[in-house]
């Protein structure tokens, strides 16, 4: 990847088994920690709560 500053994600964990969903959430949190902007939509309240926490 070319180090984007902005990510648009639409249901990034939809349809994934729990292990892969966890991996995707961890990747999103890594990008967030590096200061990238992430805009995402999700119907999964667990994902939303985990990913919006302020570090």
Shape: globular
Number of helices: 2
Using DSSP, what is the number of strands? 2
Give the CA-CA distance, first to last residue.
Answer: 24 Å
Task: Compute the number of structural domains.
Answer: 1
Strand order of the largest sheet: 1-2
Structural class: alpha+beta
Largest sheet: 2 strands, parallel
Radius of gyration: 11 Å
Give the strand content: 15-25%
- The percent of residues in helical segments reads 40-55%
Task: Write a structural description.
The structure is a single chain. The chain is of the alpha+beta class. The chain has helices at 18-33, 45-52, and strands at residues 6-10, 37-41. Helix 1 links the parallel strand 1 and strand 2 (37-41). The mean pLDDT is 91.
List the helices and strands and how they pair.
Blueprint: E1 6-10, H1 18-33, E2 37-41, H2 45-52
Parallel strand pairs: 1-2
Relevant terms:
2 helices, 55 residues, two-stranded parallel ribbon, 2 strands, alpha+beta
In short:
With 55 residues, the chain is an alpha+beta fold. It is globular, with a radius of gyration of 11 Å.
